[in-house]
Amino acid sequence: MVRKFVAGMARMPILLVVSLAVLAVGLVLAFRPAPAQAATYASPWWTVTAGTQEKVCAGCGCEMPSPIVEPGVSILTGELILDIPFASSQTMLGTQTLGVRARGMISGGTEFGMNMIPSWMTTVQETIHNVGNPLANGGHSALVRLPTGVTVNFIWGGSAYGTSDCCFHDTLSKNGSGRYVLTALDGSTKLFDANGMPDVYTDANGNTTDYTYNSSLQCTGWTNDRGVSTTVNHDANGWVSSVVVDGLFTYAFNVNSSGYLTSITTPTTPDQGSGIVIAPQYDGSNRITSIRMNRQVRRLRAEAGG
User: Fold this and answer.
1) Cα 227 to Cα 247: distance, rounded to the nearest angstrom
2) What is the model's pLDDT at position 147?
3) Tell me, what's the pLDDT at 9?
4) Fewer Cβ atoms within 10 A, N terminus or C terminus of the chain?
5) Which residues pair with 200 in a beta bridge?
C-alpha cells in the first residue's frame, strides 16, 4: 500500500506537489501562536482606582495627618505606596531627591513603568465639558496629577479655577499664553507646556528648573537652577532606559514586556564595582511584594485591592 502511494506521488505533476507543500506550510504558519507583543508607553494620564485618596478630610473640613504608615501602606485602603529613590541632585535650596513612587491602586502609569510616578512630575490635563462655550461657568476642568499619586480637580468658574478637594492650597491659573500655572503659598510656581507637562519650575527665590518634554509626552531632560543637566533616554517601546545626571552618572532602567519596572542600576563606584541594582519583585497580579537591593531584600505585603 505504501509502495502504491509513493508510486502515485511520483506520477503527480511536480507543480501540484510544490503547491501542496506550500499549502501545508501556510496552514502551519496560520495556526502557529502569534508572538506576544511587548507593552508600549502610551501616556502619563494614570487614574486613581482607590475609593478614598489619602488627602481627604474627616467630614469637617479639617486636615488629616498622612495615613501612610511604614513600610508604605495606606491605613485607609491597604494600598501599597512605596518610594524608590535612585539619585540626588544639588539645587539652590538644597538636595533634590530623584526617585519614583509605586502605587498599587492606580491604573496606568508613566514612562517609568506601570504604577510608577517620577518624583518631579506634576501634570495638568484639561477636559472640555461645553464644546460650544468652554469658557462658560463649568465649561472645562483641569485635572492636576501630583507626584504623590493623588489628583486634584479644578473647575473653571467663569473667571477663575476652583476646587472642592481639600488639603490642597496651590492655586491654578492660566498665563497670557494660555498655559497653566500652579502657584504655591510660598510664591513658587510650576509652569506647564501646551500639553500640560512640566515646563518651568520657579522656586520662591526666583531660581528656575527647565524641563523638556517631547510630543509623545516623554521627558527628555531638564536643567536645574545650578546649571546641572539631566538627560532621559528611552527604549524602542517608549519606556525610560536611562537617566544621565550631569553627563557623568548613568542610572540604567529596565522595564519588562508587560510594562513594569524591574530594575534600576546605579553608577559604579570604588565600593560598588557593578553599581547597586534596585529590583522590585512582583507577584502574579503584578503587585510589588519585595524590593531587592543587591543582596538585601525588603519584603512587603500586597494589598487586597491593588
Assistant:
1) 12
2) 94
3) 47
4) N
5) 191, 210
Grid coordinates representing 210 are 527647565
User: Mean pLDDT over residues 134-160, rounded?
Assistant: 96
Domain-wise residue ranges, the chain: 122-180
HEC profile of the chain:
CHHHHHHHHHHCCHHHHHHHHHHHHHHHHHHCCCCCCCCCCCCCCCEECCCCCCCCCCCCCCCCCCCEECCCEECCCCCEEEEEEEEEEEECCEEEEEEEEEECCEECEECCEECEEECCCCEEEEEECCCCCCCCCCCEEEEEECCCCCEEEEEECCCCEECCCCCCCCEEEECCCCCEEEECCCCCEEEECCCCCEEEEECCCCCEEEEEECCCCCEEEEECCCCCEEEEEECCCCCEEEEEECCCEEEEEEECCCCCEEEEECCCCCCCCCCCEEEEEECCCCCEEEEEECCEEEECCCCCCC
Question: What gap in Å lies between CA 181 and CA 98, rounded to an integer?
Answer: 23
Torsion of CA 236, 238, 239, 244, to 10 degrees: 80
pTM of structure: 0.83
Strand partners of residue 261: 255
Residue 285 near residue 302, CB atoms below 8 Å: yes
